[in-house]
Design brief:
homodimer; 287 residues; alpha/beta; Rossmann fold; 4-stranded parallel β-sheet; 10 helices; 44% helix
Chain lengths: 287, 287
């Protein structure tokens, strides 16, 4: 995906603001997801450059390597400048084939496997896709956690809440759903979420369903102005979306969480990744 | 999390099967998720070693760095061998503080930022957490995609299917839900999923709701034996879980998908990550 150049862009060679078009390949003999995540993390550090991204997953035989190599060469011609290739390749022969192309190769495994082998005193398996195998306990746990998160989204089901690792509460649309999903998918946590609704604020107490699980409760909140924008998209010009409603609900929710001693996190200027990691830290502190 | 040693473990120094206990830190001035993903990918290449994992996210000031450093030293004492530290640190001063500890430091950014700066002719922003900022178009798109995936899980809603990027079909419990979620979260795709149920097989045609969107349909399938195991956990000894039912449903679903020309993927020995990437490749081919 191309991103528009940002204001702080400075092209060092010309000293002028200038978007540069470069192509980055994410290549792997596995899914390439690790290469893509790290590659994007690196690219985000460089402003003002338009990156075209090309994925080449499952490059695990000479034929696919030849395909990839010819695409690298094609892009080299087309761009008039060599592309970047971020790789996670376990097979050194396939890797060597690709390196016949004119590109900047950044091989994540190559750089780190050798020092790790030395440090650990064992040879690496050099096997493809080990980290994403289906058999492992961790994988099965993550799938179960995702199914749990879906089944316990937005208070849909009260059943089995005792098996939750964490229960998120907060007003509608403050970010509970994506945060729950992220916790389940990335960290294998069974995350339920439960909305705080006007009826709860009238009674001025937490929903009965979650009360027995106070030690697993965490709150989310968000600035009323941002909540208003989000709700507007869902139900334009409704009472539900009105700025005034958002202000009242957020204030009531925060009051309730403060009184009940529930630790809460503010989504306003934080991403779901950041909030998820903070929740994990908070859980660890409790244990 | 400790994982049990695997059978193929070989301790090179002794030549004997032997679990080794080592500690790995994932340290970052951001969430540390990139460090953790790459770190785990690397560890999965080393059999027979028991890794204890410790996360240190948001290490972005000297005080937190001092905390982390003292934990590294503590573990060094406790393990009797230096720990591994996989880092993504944008701030070189904080990074230097940590390096006073006795550990093997693998800094993902340090290794790659320098060659990238040289290649691109621009200085990196050296800003923390850029990749996980909340403002970006890509982030907003991912959140919207996750909400879409939840709202269109398991055929719950037919509304808005025309805005789906992809619609997955398959028998109950073949893996549609986690695959949809993964597509939305990792790649920002609006993924709906729709079960194929006994009524569909009796009529021997696809559900009417998805028929108008044939170009977005992809199928999932799974070995009947594995489906049986998964369904047994959900509803033990039910007709729904019976091996015979699983065999019939899977056969009927595959027959239908073949006849309708729907490309499908087999979850039996593939992870959701692998299937998700294959689906993306298939979508790209269509475009």
């Amino acid at each position: 995906m191309n991103t528009p150049p940002k204001k702080s862009a400075l092209h060092a060679q010309s000293g002028k603001m200038k978007p540069i078009n470069r192509t980055i390949f994410f290549v792997s003999d596995g899914t390439g997801i690790t290469a893509e995540i790290l590659g994007k993390g690196l690219l985000s550090q460089f402003d003002g450059i338009n990156f075209r991204q090309i994925r080449f997953p499952f490059v695990d035989d000479p034929e696919k390597a030849a395909d990839c190599l010819s695409r690298i060469r094609e892009i080299r011609e087309q761009d008039g400048i060599r592309p970047l290739v971020v790789m996670t390749m376990m097979n050194p022969e396939i890797s060597a084939m690709l390196r016949q192309g004119d590109a900047l190769f950044l091989d994540l495994f190559e750089v780190f496997i050798a020092p790790l082998e030395k440090e650990l005193g064992v040879r690496s398996a050099h096997t493809v896709g080990r980290s994403h195998g289906q058999a492992g306990h961790e994988y099965i746990n993550r799938i179960a956690a995702m199914n749990f998160a879906i089944a316990h989204d937005d208070g849909v089901s009260d059943a089995d809440l005792k098996n939750a690792d964490v229960i998120l509460v907060g007003v509608s649309r403050c970010g509970k759903t994506p945060t729950s999903l992220y916790l389940s998918m990335q960290f294998g946590l069974r995350a339920a979420n439960y909305p705080l609704i006007p009826e709860d604020f009238e009674r001025d107490r937490l929903p009965d369903t979650v009360l027995p699980f106070r030690d697993k409760l965490f709150g989310l909140t968000i600035a009323p102005e941002q909540l208003h924008k989000i709700r507007q998209e869902r139900r334009p010009d409704s009472k539900y979306a009105a700025l005034d409603t958002c202000r009242q609900e957020v204030a009531a929710a925060e009051r309730m969480m403060r009184r009940e001693g529930i630790e809460w996190f503010d989504m306003t200027s934080r991403s779901i990744e950041e909030i998820a990691v903070q929740i994990i830290q908070a859980i660890n502190k409790k244990e």
